[in-house]
Design goal:
Length: about 200
């Protein structure tokens, strides 16, 4: 219990540091844009276009696994873990509520883990390893994309750093699992694909 209390103490200190030293009014609009799901519609449309154009035989499996990935991360984070841990959001926590800048609404009462972080790291992990499997290319920008969205959650004051860390871990584990399922699925379709490289997970 002492370790958990220490982690929570450090987590709140980190949150206060972000709110007091890493925020600026000129940056608010950008962070609000980053965490808006509509901002990333072009990315989703590009991925849909890419997989349909380049990997037609794998497209349906890729899309299904993508949908399953975000469904699992969102349901697990929002409807299971948040209710299990019942950690209050910064704006409901009496120790941190006074410094929350309030540039967005508080949202639901509980915050651990962050659904934004779990969803986007889940997609980043699944897309990164699946695209590497299909093409050998490493779309590293996906990790930056998920990290930026997750940081924005702390920036606007709706999550503590540990919330997004926990969400990221949940997302990565789920994304890796779906990537392995996708790999086995397409290997079953083609026992000896000529262009596929082995998916080696970390």
């Amino acid at each position: 219990m002492q370790v958990i209390d220490w982690l929570i103490h450090i987590d709140k200190k980190a949150f206060v540091f972000v709110q007091t030293h890493l925020t600026a009014t000129w940056l608010d609009g950008f962070m609000l844009l980053v965490r808006n799901p509509y901002t990333w519609i072009p990315l989703y449309l590009y991925l849909l276009y890419w997989v349909l154009r380049r990997e037609k035989t794998m497209a349906l499996k890729f899309i299904i696994c993508t949908i399953v990935c975000i469904t699992v991360t969102d349901f697990t984070s929002a409807h299971i873990l948040k209710q299990l841990f019942e950690r209050l959001r910064p704006c409901y926590d009496t120790e941190t509520a006074v410094i929350v800048r309030g540039i967005v609404g508080c949202g639901g009462k509980f915050s651990f883990p962050s659904s934004h972080a779990s969803n986007h790291f889940g997609l980043a992990a699944f897309w990164f390893y699946s695209i590497r499997l299909l093409t050998g290319k490493k779309w590293r920008f996906l990790w930056f994309w998920a990290s930026l969205i997750s940081f924005a959650q702390v920036y606007v004051g709706v999550h503590f750093p540990l919330d997004v860390t926990g969400g990221a871990i949940l997302g990565i584990v789920t994304g890796l699992g779906l990537a392995k399922i996708f790999e086995r699925w397409i290997r079953h379709q083609d026992k000896s694909p000529s262009k596929n490289s082995s998916l080696s997970l970390p």
